[in-house]
Specification:
mainly alpha; globular; 64% helix
Length: 113
């Protein structure tokens, strides 16, 4: 575990997301924890949080043909990110898709600056 990586108790990865509101609350906590520690993995939480907020706004404004489907997609993607982040934090490389592994390793190590 890197010195910037939150401890298990401090890593705000809660239960599986069931709604866009769950996603926003969860990502906000994850972002806050990473940014407080200057952990560069926070960039993903920030990006996903902003994208999720914008998608929620557009769903509420009925900008999509099938807003319910978009909402389910947002939640499903956030759960994949949550699962990858947890696997990375636990060092469970077998459960971590290669693309996430590269991205999270690079940002955690500060190589992508």
């Amino acid at each position: 575990m890197s010195e910037n990586m939150p401890s298990q108790d401090d890593l705000p990865i809660g239960p599986i997301y069931h709604s866009i509101e769950d996603v926003i609350d969860g990502l906000a906590g994850t972002q806050e924890a990473f940014l407080k520690r200057r952990d560069r993995r926070g960039v993903f939480a920030t990006a996903y949080l902003e994208i999720t907020r914008e998608l929620r706004r557009r769903i509420q404004a009925q900008k999509f043909h099938d807003g319910d489907w978009v909402g389910r997609y947002v939640v499903a993607f956030a759960n994949l990110y949550r699962k990858a982040l947890l696997a990375h934090h636990e060092g469970n490389r077998a459960a971590l898709p290669r693309a996430w592994q590269l991205s999270l390793d690079t940002s955690a190590a500060g190589w992508g600056s």
